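Hi L., both proteins are below.
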Amino acid sequence: MDLPTVTIESQLPATESLNKPRHNPKYLQTFLNLGIGIWDGNDLLDVGKLLMNNLKSSAITLAEVAEFLLKLKVNYAQRESEAPFRNITDYLTYGKLTEYVATSTLQYLTEHNVGNEVLKYFIEPLMIHIYDQELDMNSFAAFASLTSLLSSGKITMTNEPPV
């Protein structure tokens, strides 16, 4: 089965080369092969199968995680030449991370067309496990949770294989 091409669009500077199509299906395959099962109250769900059955939502989620990681990279680079941040608000201004705390996970991912099955049976259980919070928690938490499943080295913004 051919996996979809993921195209990233971003507000980041053009030097980040975010608008190139991602043709390498290995990134999405890494996401699909997490080997996670989630109990839904009746059965143990195979998350890989769930994500495979919802490829569009899976690809969108992976692209959004990659976007989040790039913004974190910009955040680190911008803060490197500045004085230490004094509070979370200061920290979030670097790399334009404020959008992630301004919206809930449900709102952010729904607006980016992630389907209900992926939200309910993949992202929400992960957030409950890590934060004991549901989808009404800010989207920064969701992306931190998703990042914990994948090393940032496995999501790259080039067509080269992950390191």
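That was the first. Here is the second:
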Amino acid sequence: MSNFDESYSGQDIVPAQSILRKVPHVVEPELNLRLDAIVFASDALQYSFMKMRETAVLAGPGGKGKTPKFEIALLDAAWDVVNQLDAIRQLLNALLCAEAERDALTQRLFEFLETAKVLSNKMAHLNQNLTNRA
């Protein structure tokens, strides 16, 4: 996806033929681990999206077959998506240049991923957030 305004339809995020799936041995080990983690997070993200789609299909048109179990399954898969997006954000942040040196497309990606960071932080501090709301 070259444009972050496009919708995602389940296609491979990291294609099977991508060099990221078979990183050359000359790549330093730490970088290799980070790239491998990005591929894993991308695959997990794709799987979670697929789970959400399948759950929605099972619920039927208009959600007529929706039950609490379906709602839990959708929420679980959605949080998996958030967690994987935040993991990708952290990994990319460690790999890429300083914010001031990022091109416009990279900056847009990080702005898009900022939502995952905020949601992840909200969940990580759920107990404190509930106390603050009471």
